[in-house]
Amino acid sequence: MIAEALDTLITLGWTFLAWLLILAAATTAALYTVAVTLIATVRAVRRASRALLRLARTRRRPRPSWALTRRAARTLTRYNEAA
Predict the structure, then answer these.
(1) For residue 80, what pLDDT is reported?
(2) pLDDT of residue 65
């Protein structure tokens, strides 16, 4: 009777250990997936924001007067004369 109880206890111990290893592997895979997804999202947002900032900077650069339309040149001239 005691031998069967010990045998059952050992079997349950190995089963528990197997379930623990499977659970640890599944948790590790899930956390790895979340981390990779988070890193990819942060990189995409950072690249997009850099591109938008670069685009915003290039639009604010002053253009030479010969590249302006007639109306924009008149407005710029009036602004410079008033200053």
Answers:
(1) 79
(2) 65
Domain count, the chain: 1
* Spatial distance between the Cα atoms of 37 and 31, rounded to a whole number of angstroms: 10
Residues of the chain with pLDDT under 50: none
65, 76 Cβ separation under 8 angstroms: yes
Residues of the domain holding 20: 2-82
Give CA–CA dist 78/37, Å, rounded: 53
Longest dimension (CA), the chain: 107
Percentages of the chain per state (helix, strand, coil), in multiples of 5:
90, 0, 10
